[in-house]
Amino acid sequence: MYKVLIPRYKSGRSLGEVYYNKFTTIFRAALQRKLRYRSTWTVGIFGHPNDNVNMKLLPGSKAETFIKHCIKSDYFMRVLLYGDMRQMNDLFQVLKRWIGNDWELNKLSDQDKLQLSQQQSHGAGPVCHFHSVIKHIFVGALYESELDKEWVSKRKLLNFCPYCGDASVFVTNHVGVDGNDVVSKTVLDHYLPKSEFPYFAVNIFNLFPCCERCNSDVKKGDKMPIEKDAAGTIHSLIMYPHHFDESRLTFAYIPPTSLHPNDDIELICADAYLEKGYKSILGIEALYKHYKGEAKDMIDRANNYLTLPAMNYGRQTFGFDKRFMDFYVKSTLGFNPYDKKPMDVQRYKFKMDIFRQINRQLNIRVG
Which of 12, 104, 154, 338 has the most CB atoms in a 10 Å sphere around its CB? Predict the structure, then answer.
């Protein structure tokens, strides 16, 4: 649970510009190859293993026109590679108007596939369904084959998963048991799922290093991180990591009482949408309940440090000045928050929220 910062380089260029300069030629060449060599492929139907739909990038199709735009239009390519969320949404609205057909813009249902398979069994030719063809090219070719995922991961400057803040996203290089060099798997999540938005599959600001737990099908996976209400207003279920607002989520330690003898951890969300995203989808509250002991240790360290003898020693030694409080902060948290970036500390937000709770209860002002 971190706000992912966008680095700028000494040259003054942004991460997006560096990414564009590195990959635009590679991606354009790959798209050119797809236009030149139009092979047919099959899309299987769930529950009907003997039936397949034949797909092909057909001349004159909307998919072909879109790919040609991506190759020739600098604006298209820039939005596809490093457009921000607003620009991605604007391009999606253009596609909706241009295609004018939800059936082509959305994923094929199993019923759609079965119907197409039956038509093809009676002699119909390959289908150029826009979403399926673009997914095959942008996900299967550009993202899976042409993108250097390790390069992307390293330049996001993250050590821990931005969704849970708990698991490491380090890309490590080590020697395997056979003596060969091994690079650990790079796990990248698409904030807007590539299954729903395949044309943003290689957008650097749609890609985030994350842990396998959060990227699994039972957690975020390809679930939509946003939801519309009845009035059409869009709400975040999972906050976009570049715009993460930590004030909208708060961890709290619940001490044991006579009625509830076991202590607990609660995640307080600003609204029902975030509660659905962080509790039901990501399971963050359930995950952090395992760290009750860590919260209790912080409380014990704070209380031990602020005993009467320690307070008297602090007054005599430091005059109870900023140095005394700095020692209190570091001894309670285990790190100095003024020297550390959140992305470098495991469970940073959890620790800081518990620390603020301790200070409120002890009526201590820090910083």
Answer: 104
CA distance 229 to 26: 40
Average pLDDT for 62-86: 92
Regarding beta strands 234-236 and 226-228, do their DSSP bridges make them parallel or antiparallel, or are they unpaired? antiparallel
Give the residue with greater pLDDT, 280 vs 123. 280
Q: Which residues of 164-183 are buried (b: 16+ CB within 10 A; e: fewer)?
A: bbbbebebeeeeeeeeeeee
Instruction: Please give the pLDDT value at position 169.
Output: 86
CB 225 within 8 Å of CB 236: yes
Given a cut of 90, whether residue 63 has pLDDT beyond it is yes
- Which letter does DSSP use for residue 139 in this model? I
Residue spans of the domains in the chain: they are 15-218, 245-362
By the 8 A CB rule, do 153 and 170 touch?
no
50 close to 56: Cβ distance less than 8 angstroms: no
- Tokens 């607990």 identify what position? 264
Higher per-residue confidence, 184 vs 34: 34
- Which residues are within 8 A (CB) of 165 and not within 5 positions of it... i.e. 6 or more apart? 1, 2, 346, 347, 348, 349, 350
Q: State how far the Cα of 203 lies from the Cα of 69, in Å rounded to an integer.
A: 16
